[in-house]
Every structure is written in structure tokens, then in C-alpha cells.
Give the backbone structure.
Amino acid sequence: MESTISSSDQLSVIDASIARLTAELEDLRVRRNSYAPVSKLPPEIMENIFLFRRDDHYGSNNPSNAWQWIQEVSHVCRSWRLAALQSRELWSRVSFESPEYAELLLNRSERVGGGGPISVEIRSEPTDEEDEEYMWEAIACESQRVKSLDIQRNSGGSDEFVWPLGLPWNPAPILEFLRMEVTDDDLPVAGLLMLDHSSLLFAGHTPRLRHLELTNLLIPWSSSILTANITTLKLTWSDHISRPAISPGTPTEFFRALDQMPSLETLDIFQLFNPEMNTFRSDDIVALPKIKQFTLKGITKQCTVILKHLSVPPTACLSLIPLQLDSQTGIEPLSQTSHLPGVLRMIRALHKAWIRHGEACRGTHWGAYFCFFRLKPGGCIQLRPIVPKCNKELEENTEPGTLMLHLPEELSLQILPSKYVHFIDIVEDTLTSKSNRASLVRHIFNYFPKTVHICLRDSFTHTAFMEHIKAHAFDPPAPENDSNVNTPEADNSPSEPSHTNDEATPPAPEADNPPSTDPQAPRTNNNFDNLTILSLQGVKFKVPNSNSNSDDTTDRIDVEDLLAFLRMRSERGKRLMQLRLSKTHDLKEEDVERLRACVDDLEWTQATSTA
């Protein structure tokens, strides 16, 4: 008698076979994956790969994309998932793109990281009220382990969206980085937002805060979060804001706040202070001994007052952006020569703050001179000061800092004592028209007669230089008794001034009586008698009998003109010490040898072909 198996029993047998085969298949997959090269990577390498994938997707405005990196690193295979779930750093970066996403990250950072430090970023706009409340409550609850907080969002016209007032805030004992940026389009009308309740930021207890950066948002100078440990303080506004008319406090509070932050290394201040700053006077000088980068943007007179009450080391790199206040248009860059007296006062205050020892050095004013001039794109100039070698603040073999000055050239040239500038460096500028660039370069050559080293990095500066020397350098040298001939004092090294007569009256800074910048004004020493090094980068030479179009030939120089200049200098006993031609175009090897014979040293490289 044949046994019969019911349908249910047959299904059970089949299901059991499927389960067994599925388990075997899964085991085969695991064994197969173990032979894959990626599975042999150390856990540390796998973790770095996962971190790269996370950072690629992090902060996405689309919540679905924010989830994508999690799926890529933990939903591929078992070994990847285990490696991801065991990584403490992978879950330490929290974004509030959606409540569910943030909750997952917070839970895993708590479970995997054992309650370790987290970095929080907020990029979303104010949306649902419940989601907004959850976000701030979560941050408040986790404040004990927040190490970094980066907020960038539209405020909706109220600082409540940047930092709500109604929630209880706990201290943040390990917070080191805090950045808050308001991105409202209507800020030019509304002005900057003032975070008056800044004392409630983490209950005013952020003992380890080192980096504080606020954009379009101010806090009072008396805020308790401005602690002695801060090394970076940036209080700035966006370029499109024309009327940032809110003051964060009195001048006394401002200088007191800086005095309480002696560890500052980076300080960016873009602010309009209240009218009291224009007339503020104090005998106290606030020293910033560790400052490395200092950017100051504001009304010229207020910048002057601030600099008069500060002291920074000569190694600091400074950036000055003086502005004018117009009742109709708001704040604007300086644009008129009538602003020159105010700019000169600001520069003198800068020298006293920057090279304080230089002013008192043997009664001279060497700290008021610059030896380095660089024209950067957009018209910004970079300067390096002359620091007396007796200045004890500058250690041996340590270079002084630089000054970035954001002024139109008609103002910037007039503040410089031209005879002490011995290095001119002009960087390529694609923002200015060709004719204006060439005119400006020729103007600079006219202004700095004592140049020792010229570095030109743009083809139009090369042609402007050659036009200049053809027009002026081949003139006979001036008589020895001519007032334009270099005096022994002028020939001294700019960094080591001589003092042959200590009782002599020190030379007043030329910035007090600037030479004329009129292109038609009498020129002095245009044949570059002091020039010892000429650097031309990316220089293009004319090709004889070429069919190049006119646009291409206008930015090329003739090698014969350069040879004539070098030979003329040799004949006059002023042979060039070094000629640097880098990334040259269409310079023949025989011409290289002809140039080499006219200078003491020639450095030459050819441009790499892009074909």
C-alpha cells in the first residue's frame, strides 16, 4: 500500500530545502566575498573609504540623498556592515536633514561611540514646527558631547531660527567650533541680526571654544562665550549687504573683549561701530601677541582708531579694507583721491601697531616703509614692510608678514614711499581690460624708480615692460650731479639701513608727501639702474614671418628688444645679475645662448606643449 504525502507536507519539505539551499548560498556568498580584494583591506582603510562616501553625500538638501551613503556602506555585504557599525567616527557627524535621519545618527553615535563627541551641521531651512522643535531639543539634550556646531540657514527675519530663546540650554563643555551664518536675501534692507541673547548660548559655558565664526549675525562684545581660549574669531557680513548698521557694543567693550582673548591667531572683523568709535581715545594698548591673520573692514576713520589701540607682531599678515559711508548708497569702497588724507592716517596707525619698535629705532621712521609690492587680481596690492634688524620681536631668519591693501590704484600708489620699494611682482589679472592693465603696469614702473627685482606673470605686463624700456631706458644716463641719481642713503639695503649720522634729522615718511602719480609728471630713473633680477613668467616671443593673428601678436615681445636692453645695461656697467624666463613660448635655443651671454645667470624653462 503506497503511502501518500499530503500537499502541506510536500510544501514543508520544499520550504526546508529552500531554507537549506538559501543558507548554503549565503555561505557561498560570504566565502566568495572573502576572496575579493576589497575584503582583504584592513578595517582602518575600510573606515576611511566609508568616511569619504559619507562626506560626499553629507549635508545634501535632499533627504533621500542623505540616506544614500548609509545604504552604500552598510547594505552591501555583512563584512561591510560590521565594519560600518563598529566605526565610531562614521556616526559622529550629525545632520538634521530630516528627524528620522538625525535620530538614526544620534542613536548610533551613542551606541557605537559610547557617547563620544559629535559634530552637528544644520543646513535646512525652517520647515515644520514639530521638526524644528525636535532639532533644537535634540541639540540641547546632546550639548554635553557637541564638539562642533555649524549652522547655515535663512533666519526668516528673526534670530529665533538661528538660536531659539525659549528652550533651556545646557553647557557645552567640549565645544571647540561654532559657526553661525544667516543667508537671508532681504538682509540689505533689514541689516545684520543681533543675537542679543547670546549669553544663553549653551548657558554661556563653552570653556573649550576655540573657533567662533558669525556671518551676518552679531553678538555683544560683552558675551560670555568670548573666552580666553578663542584662537579664531570671524565676525563678517556678506558682500551684498550695503547697510550693516548694527553695533555690537561700545568701543570700550570691544577693546576689553580683545584684551580677554590673548590666544587669538586669526581675527576677521567686518563691522560698523557706533559713532563713539570715531572719537574714542585711550592710553591702553591691546596686545595680540599670537595673531597670524588679521582682516579689518570698516569705515576708514574707525579702522584708524582701532589700529591706534592695537599691537600686533611684525610676522602677522594683515588685510585692510577701508570703506566710505554714503547716506544714499550705504557703504562703498573708497574711490576718490579726496580720501587720501584719511588713508594716510590709517596707514600711519597701522605702522605703529605693526612695527612699533621701528618708529623708535634711532629716531628714524624705517617702520613706515615697504620693500615689496605685489599687484594681485582685482587691483588688490600686497606689501611687505621693512623691519629694523634691531627689532627684538622678529627672530633671526624669520620673514615679516605682509599687508593686503584693498584700494584703487590711484590711492594705493600715493601712500607708498616709492624709493624704498625694491621688489615689484605683478600677478595675472583677468578682471581688468587689456588696455587698462598695460597702462597700470607702465604707471607702476614710473612710480617705483629704485626697483631691484621685477617679476611679471602676465603677457600684457611683458609687453608693457618692453614698451616702457624702449621709451625710457635707452636714454642717456642722468649726470652724476642730477638730483635723480641715487644717493648713498638710497643705495643702502632696505632691510638694513645705515646710520652714518645719528644726530641727523631722520627722513620723514614719503607717504606724508607722496610724489605725483600723474603719468605726465617728470619721471626719475626710468632706466632701472638698480635692477638686478628680472623674472618673466609665461612670456611669449614673436615669431618672425609668422601668420599669427593680430590678437596673438599683441601680447608677444621681440627677443631683439630684450637683448638690446641687456646689452645696454652691460655697456653702462650695470649688467643684470639674473634673468629668469619660465614657461616661455617660441624662444629659440640660439636666442637662449645670446641672452645667456648678456647676464650673469640665466634660468630658462620652456612651456609644456598642450597638443
Q: What stands out?
A: The CA atoms of residues 153 and 182 lie 6 Å apart. The first strand starts at residue 93 and ends at 95.
